[in-house]
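Before any further analysis, backbone shapes were mapped to integers, which produced the following:

***
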Amino acid sequence: MKSMIKSVALATIVVAAPLTLATTASAEGEKYVLVSHAPDSDSWWNTVKNGIALAGEQMGVEVEYRNPPTGDIADMARIIDQAAASGPNGIITTLADYDVLQGPIENAVASGVDVIIMNTGTPEQAREVGALMYVGQPEYDAGLAAGMRAKGDGVTSFLCVNHAIQQPTVGERCRGFADGLGVDLGDSMLDSGTDPSEIKNKVLAYLSANPETDGILTLGPVSADPTIAALEENGMAGDIYFGTFDLGEEIVKGIKSGVIQWGIDQQPFLQAYLPVVIMTNYHRYGVLPGNNINSGPGFVTADALSKVEEFAGEYR
């Protein structure tokens, strides 16, 4: 473990896209493309870029990161088509919207390109499109676990701040949370958008209109950071139960200060790192794990922040 952490700490931090990692193996033609649904503005994906950077370096392969600049899923579908046409050894991709992305992924598989699904989608959907496997967090189950934890802590009503309403799988976190609490989701899921100012104002408006709300769930730094600002503005920071998915610098600060009770770490570093390693070994030696890999969920609380705080936003 210590040697792995040391390697991670020494790895180059890569934050720009597109990202190409050319290594000694590129001459042998080993090339992989990771396609995500993330817009350029979402810094959470820097951890994913760092994961493929380290995996590419260690495995001696070329890895390229591609994404739709605005997060448009139709644009992502075109990027998958273009990636497959470039003739890589494999594509690692998110499956943010099954209906839109099913065709391009199945076409890539039919053309002879191996595919691994990561981060979004489900193991079942990965099988349906012909992918080798799925590496990620079961979203509904993670939400359910979070809801059961919140129920045990006395939460009875909640607001779920969803900054990615266009991605059906992300909404499963809110639905699972409601089921874990044993309440109807109803109007508790807020379509917040991604603009920080709008998110803060929408959260303030919701809490003002629904004063009985005693819990908040955010789905990542994009929604968590403005929600922290909203609670600081209305004086509820530290007084309302607050849990979030994913980690980031402001989330870690919030956990440390007691504003946030816990963050759910789906380990995006592993979601990117493992597919590169797995696919490379599959092509070189014909070995492949027999099951899909759950990279999360794991609850991060103030009791275990030292290593997380050190690498938040980079490898955690």
